[in-house]
Design brief:
- By secondary structure, the chain is of the alpha/beta class.
- It has helices spanning 2-11, 15-28, 34-46, 50-54, 63-77, 82-86, 107-120, 137-145, 158-171, 211-214, 219-222, 227-238, 254-264; strands at 88-91, 94-97, 127-131, 150-155, 176-179, 191-196, 239-248, 267-273, 279-285.
- It is elongated, with a radius of gyration of 21 Å.
- Bound molecules: S-adenosylmethionine (SAM).
- S-adenosylmethionine (SAM) binds at residues 103, 105, 109, 132-135, 137-138, 155-157, 160, 181-183, 197-199, 220-221, 224, 227.
């Protein structure tokens, strides 16, 4: 026991050794990108950047830093999401506070924001509703990137809304946050845009997901049988004529939801792929 402790301590003596040792540990734990994770954890401990670390691989680690890295690596080895361990995560141009109360914002959701910005182009002060706002990622990115937008985020989770509120303060962006259940109807419009990344994992799919998602992210944010359909139907009642609906969804649901939007009377229905080429965003507009 004493010997193995000594070996680990030795491996953490400098930046290069620490990165090597943590990477191996995270690889063994099944993490997808162990080297990047190791670099982000060590950069977090040292208050520096990944590129600075790479340029300084012989830098010696203080015992306190090595001990903190050891704690963070142990957490990551349990497959706790990196974002929860770091306590923050980048989304579009923002760095947001992220913890176990909310879903970790995903790269595909950045595409949702792009589609919203395209729909809002030319509108000076559009009214925007983000349904299931979670950390506030979409709502805040839109307020940031379309100055003048008046954005409201609604969520059924008081915990999630608390994080969104922290993020509004952190980013200095003014958004309205409302506690509400989408199944009870959406906040009164008229809205120029309704956007939603609703929970869309089917209950029977949850066991097949990565441990980071299955064991750590809020079930309320993941599992939602029919939430997408409910948003699409309820948005009709609160969108202005010619207003837009933008939905993130699972690739398997894209064609069906595009069809549903047409059946509901939406026009100009289009589907957009994420950066890996999967159909993940469906949007449409109410007739003008
Ligand atoms: C997939 S997460 C999206 C979070 C954030 N918008 C994002 O894109 O990162 C879905 C969010 O919907 C919320 N939610 C789940 N059921 C809801 C309901 N019935 N009414 C309103 N919000 C709901 C969850 O609390 C969660 O924050």
């Amino acid at each position: 026991m004493a010997l193995s402790h000594k070996v680990v301590t030795g491996a953490l003596e400098n930046v290069g050794g620490a990165l090597e040792s943590v990477s191996r540990r995270l690889h063994a734990a099944g993490c997808d990108s162990p080297r990047v994770d190791a670099e982000l954890l060590l950069a977090h401990v040292l208050g520096t950047t990944r590129s600075a670390l790479r340029a300084d691989s012989r830098r010696e680690l203080r015992a306190a830093d090595a001990a903190e890295l050891e704690l963070l690596a142990a957490r990551r080895a349990t497959r706790e999401p990196l974002a929860y361990i770091l306590g923050e995560w980048g989304f579009r141009r923002l760095t947001l506070t992220i913890d176990a109360r909310v879903l970790v914002p995903r790269p595909e959701t950045e595409v949702v924001v792009e589609r919203c910005l395209a729909r809002l182009a030319g509108l000076a002060e559009p009214r925007v509703l983000d349904v299931g706002t979670g950390s506030g990622a979409i709502a805040l990115a839109l307020a940031d990137e379309h100055p003048g937008a008046r954005v409201t985020g609604v969520d059924v989770s008081p915990d999630a809304l608390a994080v969104a509120r922290e993020n509004a303060v952190r980013t200095g962006l003014a958004i309205e946050l409302v506690l509400g259940d989408l199944y009870a109807g959406l906040p009164d419009g008229p809205w120029d845009l309704v956007v939603s990344n609703p929970p869309y994992v089917r209950p029977d799919e949850i066991e097949g997901l990565a441990p980071e998602v299955r064991d750590w992210e809020p079930r309320l944010a993941l599992v939602g049988d029919g939430a997408t359909e409910a948003v699409a139907a309820r948005a009709l009642a609160v969108l202005r004529p010619g207003g837009a609906l933008v939905l993130e969804l699972a690739e398997a649901d894209a064609a069906r939801v595009a069809g549903l939007l047409r059946e509901l009377g939406y026009v100009d229905v289009t589907t957009t792929c994420d950066l890996t080429g999967r159909e993940r965003v469906v949007e449409g507009a109410t007739p003008a």
